[in-house]
Amino acid sequence: MNAQVKESRPLVEMIDIQKSFGGVHAVENVSVDLFPGEVVGVLGHNGAGKSCLMRILSGAMAPNAGRIRMRGEDVRFVSPQDARRQGVETIYQTLALADHLDAPSNLFLGRELKTRWGNLDDKRMMVEARRVLHRLNPNFKNLSDPVSRLSGGQRQVIAIARAIYFNVKVLIMDEPTAALGPAETAMVADLIRQLRSEGIGIFLISHDIHDVFDLCDRIVVMNRGRNVGGYHIEQVTKDDVLSLIIKGEMPDGWRPRNAASALQPGLNSH
Amino acid sequence: MSVDVDRIVVPLARVKITSDALHKLSALFTLFMLIALFAFGNAAFLSVGNGLTVLLQTSVIGLLGIGMTLVIVTGGIDLSVGSVLALSGTVAGLAVKAGMPVPLGMSMGIVVGALCGAVNGIVVTKMRITPFVATLGMMLIARGTALQITGAAPISQLGEAFGKLGNGSLFRVIGMGSNGLPKVIFPGIPYPAILLVVVAVTVAFMLRRRSIGRHIYATGSNEEAARLSGVAVDRTKLAAYVMSGALAGLAGIVLMSRLVTAQPNEGVMYELDAIAAAVIGGSSLMGGVGTVSGTMIGAFIIGVLRNGLNMAGVSAFIQQIIIGFVVIMAVYVDQLRSRR
Predict the structure, then answer these.
(1) pLDDT tens-digit readout, A103-133
(2) Same-domain status, A128 and A28
């Protein structure tokens, strides 16, 4: 993180977010924020509420209470479309692709390019899709095949392309490398660094501690629906993070590794 | 010469036969085999008059099948089309009988069909009832209403104008015979057939070239993905059911017009023919797959089978058995192919 980033105001602030299903509190009074050009790892074991929190930000789920602010202004996301209009894009773990459609149709699904007469402009969508897909993977072929026939890596590339094509400002990545081989994982890591350098804010949901320490500037750990800690990555060790994930608290007698960074903005632990 | 060979080989290699196209080709092949078979058995089968009869008979199943295809592609099913056909036809008949001009009365029939479809769509999307149950309910409601408002009796003497849509034809050429009596030189293209072509082309265009069409496929292919991609899934489904209902209404007035009688008992089990046409034509009941052209071929396979078997003197019961086998075989062959 450089000085310029520190001074800018948060891109996203999620304040006192609450979500419950029946009597179960999936997310309890959680606040997190995200600055431009920052990668924030969202950690926690399954059912800790991290995916739920991110679904609220992506507009796929409405919170019971709490506010979302983007660049200091209150926003309300009723549908994924609302979030996308504000530049919040999500790469879902399931990739959310329509299997019977081809790559361009998936890339532009819900935001199709149209001709003057309002008809689908398949030619232009194909040209654009080829351009953006080849930027991510020069070997991408079979653009007109149904995506069900493509490999896991190719499907992931389509999901990523769809998220970055439309002027993304905040990117939510849910386990983006879980289904990938080493080469493709490296490609995703490079992409994350590149997007960060372009000033895009990224929430990275990951189980892979190695990835997290490799890519994230900051982490937020969730345990049983609560935010149990937000730290700069230099402050913590892998063991600290594991303790937070599993027990919901730091090991006894814990002190930040690098005390200087403890006062930096963007921390919102409760 | 190798340059020339390259020039030829490369484009050929690019021609990929998709599984969808393959299914359609095999269905088309089946259709032509049937026609050849029946023509071989009975020369009259290939006459212009019989061809037009098949066209006329198929138009109703074709219209229902197109609507059914839209719903099936979204991953749903519409069991109500046969009953909605009857309700729309009887509403149109009653309206005309009450003194309403024929075009207005028939429009009312179509609107009633669309309304039934809208109810189906709302029950499916808002009340979250599965399409099978929702449209099964509508099947009973529409049939019951049709029987109730007519007192279960057919409405006849609707006038010549009411029969025009179902019995009239374009480019009918009537000359003077040598005996001085009028003689039909060309029977003309029946209006129902023209209507079917117009509807088929329009809906095919919508599915391929409009975003609503793309959204229909996406919804049936992966509903959650479509929703997360910003597709208004509920509105897309609603549109499919409304169109299916409206087309059932259209089929209803075509059929009642052909009979020049509004029959509340018409169209029983037509939904099954419509589903069979869609499935023979390659639609998948799992959603996401299906085309208008495929369904048209499917409808004509059923139409030609019925007509040919009729001419061969095969009983209606045996016909049902044969069509049942055809449906199962069509889906089986499709599964064999996609498993590869």
Answers:
(1) 999 999 999 999 999 999 999 999 999 999 9
(2) no
Q: What are phi and psi of B32, to 5 degrees?
A: -70, -35
* Domain end position, chosen among A166, A199, A219: A166
The model's pLDDT over B75-105, given as tens digits with 9 standing for 90+, comes to 999 999 999 999 999 999 999 999 999 999 9
Which one of B14, B212, B228 would you mutate to disrupt binding with A, by most A Cβ within 10 Å of its Cβ?
B228
- What residues of B are in contact with residue A60 (Cβ under 8 Å)? 227-228
Structure ipTM: 0.84
Q: How far is B135 from chain A (nearest CA, A)?
A: 26
Ordered alpha helix ranges (H), B210-259? 211-221, 223-228, 233-259
**If you ran DSSP here, which 8-state letter would residue A102 be given?**
B
State which amino acid sits at residue A2.
N
Q: What CATH number matches the domain at B19-339, 2.40.30, 1.10.3470, 3.30.70, 1.25.40?
A: 1.10.3470
- State the smallest CA–CA distance between residue B267 and chain A in angstroms: 33
Domain boundary among A166, A190, A214: A166
Whether A158 and A181 share a structural domain: no
Alpha helix (H) residue ranges in A137-181: 152-165
